[in-house]
Amino acid sequence: MDFLTIIQLLDSTVRLATPLLLACLAGLFSERAGIFDIGLEGKMLMAAFFSAAVAAVTGNVWLGLLAGIGSSLLLAALHGVASITFRGNQLISGVAINFLAAGMTVLIAQDWFQQGGRTPSLIGGGRFTPFDLPFAGSVSGVPVLGPIYSELLSGHSILVYIAFLAVPATWWVLFRTRFGLRLRAVGENPAAVDTAGVSVVGLRYAAVLICGLLCGIAGAYLATALQAGFVKDMTAGRGFIALAALIFAKWRPWHAMGACLLFGLLQAIALRFQNIELGGITIPVQAMDALPYVLTVVILAGFVGKAIPPRAGGEPYVKER
Amino acid sequence: MDKMPKWADVVLIPLISLILAAILSALVILGIGEDPVAAVKLMVEGALGSTYGWGYTLYYATNFMFTGLAVAIAAHAGLFNIGGEGQAMLGGLGVALVCLLIPWPHWTLALVFAALGAGIFGAAWAAIPAYLQAKRGSHIVITTIMFNFIAAAVLNYVLVNLLRPVGSMDPATERFPESVHLPSLHELLAPIGIEFSKSAPANVSLLVAVGACLFVWLLIWRTPLGYEIRSLGKSEPGARYAGISSVRTIMIAMLISGALAGMMAINNVMGEAERLVLNATEGAGFIGIAVALMGRNHPFGVFLAAILFGFLYQGGAELALWTSIPRELIVVIQALVILFTGALDNMVRMPLEKIFLAVRKGQN
Fold first, then answer.
1. What pLDDT is attached to residue B1?
2. What's the N-to-C CA distance of chain B in angstroms?
3. Residue B327 contacts residue A70 (beta carbons within 8 Å)
4. What are phi and psi of A27, to 5 degrees?
5. How confident is the model over A271-298, as a mean pLDDT?
6. How far off is chain B from A106, nearest CA to CA, in Å?
């Protein structure tokens, strides 16, 4: 494998890791506040459709992004109502949201565009275009560092940079602000937060809505930057890979970035090479597909560093009387 | 004292949830510019108006009975088995191996062993998440989700690289031999003089599914093991105090659950397709969640809910055929049913409880 192939492989790793990272951070906010969310997939899918649909109709990708975030927030609010206000089962609510998104996106797409559940291909201003970092053109001739800067780091859509900046931002919010301290506390011991006179319900809603916001950006990225338009079930399990990455990262932001980059790399390898020859043994492409899930099960099993979720995760909070 | 009479909990709440889901579905149909009344008429006619329609409705219902029971029995043990899809996929592999590798003299013998193979493969796929839950405390919801994806990759590999006949491009096994052909309802009913559509896929597995409902009812409410499973689901410390091993009970409940999900394959793989294809399960594992929720985890409820969803599936296919409403409408209805009967249960329950309490106070 020569240097340029590696650069290209890493470049596509960054692209593929971006939606995973956004969804993973989304799940991190929600689950740190004690709300399990297996509906990341559904929220991304909904956002992917509405961002592509609005971008296709208006020709403005920013309006598309807003529409995507709006639709994802709506599903997040539904998750909040079911699991916070009505203290329902958070897992079942997540399952319902995934199906709701899978069905509604195709239904509305068919009604609006009559193209078999897809949106028209996005052109021109309907897509996020590559965003060049300063001097990317002029330094590309420099050996080794030139291609790394101009190919690997520069030339992604703006949402990629937002996703990677969201990592330190998440870390700062969770571990350096009062809001973050309370948010983590509400996921570990909501009764203590309640005793301190802080609203458990308010904090959990805030977390669920931040989750909706980030899932919205992830979905919009899929449909308007990574690809040009929405197709049926285009998230293809990314919401669950993000969930896997979250467990792999043990609910920590920097580790989440590492896990998402690793899973992004696996996707990039599976996309580029069909079967890989390694010292006479052929690794089938399906093994690459399954690897993120296998790794997550191994981590969950606790044989290599146990993953312990936030203590109050999945438990609806009932105020004592 | 209970806040509500039992009939309200068993009948009234699911009914109200179902009506809410139906109202919202009607609004969705209105929203895409179609007539909900005409749609319902078309669905009823298409799914229940002929023996052909019934044949499809019952075929789907057979799948959903197996996966619904699988979710229900795990739920009695307090476990949410979301991995029915993967277990059913592996069950399909078990059926295919039994049917292809052994020359069966008669379908009855083949059915027994295919069901066994499907059950063993399904149970094996549930065994690892069950063990990790029981012994290591890994959350079974997450592990079973992961195992669904791993199952899809495994099946893809097996079909593309191992079981695909030479020269075929299609990732599927070869057709099962004629000797393992399961009699369809047409073939079963013809000797006793009942006309049933020839081309509908409903087959003898329907009887196996009904038998499985009975078996689960007996197991849960009439055996010591069922008592242990229910105790564990109600309260783990309580069960432990009563001398019930949680590890053993979790393992057994999940193995039965996985076996039931796997046994769905005798219907869709052996009964209908007569070969194993990619995505043979078509999401039936997930519909089991809706069926179990709707049926309140009771085998009889699961039986009724499975027929309801069978009707929705066949009706939805007819809608997609004759109108511009895509099949995905069923996915939306399914989502709404899960939402109202599962996640938003308290939304219906809380006001109802208040009404019943008020009525009771008025009587005293």
1. 47
2. 15
3. no
4. -65, -35
5. 79
6. 7
Chain B partners of A81 at a C-beta cutoff of 8 Å?
A: 344
Strand partners, A277: A282
In 3D space, the residue among A67, A72, A59 whose CA is nearest the CA of residue A19 turns out to be A72
Give ipTM to 2 decimals.
Answer: 0.89
Euclidean distance between CA atoms A249 and A28, whole angstroms? 10
Among A253, A64, A263, smallest CA distance to A163 is for: A253
B48 touches chain A (CB under 8 A): no
| Residue B196 DSSP SS3 | coil
Residues of chain B with pLDDT under 70: 1-2
Distance from C-alpha of B205 to C-alpha of B72, rounded to nearest angstrom = 20
Query: Does A96 contact B143 at a Cβ distance shorter than 8 Å?
Result: no
Of B157, B331, B347, the CB nearest to A99: B331
The residue assigned the tokens 């066994």 is B116
> What whole-number distance in Å separates Cα of residue B66 and Cα of residue B302?
9
Return the ∠ at Cα B130 (arms to B124 and B134), rounded to 5°: 145
Residue B156 has phi, psi (to 5 degrees) of -60, -45
Whole-number pLDDT of residue A1: 66
pLDDT for A248 equals 82
* Residue partners of B362: CB distance under 8 A and separation at least 6: none
- For residue B139, what is the nearest residue in chain A, using CA coordinates? A300
* A64, A52 Cβ separation under 8 angstroms: yes
Q: What are A256-261's contacts with CB under 8 Å, separation 24+?
A: A256/A21, A256/A24, A256/A25, A256/A28, A256/A167, A257/A21, A257/A164, A257/A167, A259/A24, A260/A17, A260/A20, A260/A21, A260/A24, A261/A13, A261/A14, A261/A17, A261/A21
Domains of chain B: 62-306 (1.10.3470)
Burial of B336 (0-12, 13-18, 19+ CB in 10 A): buried
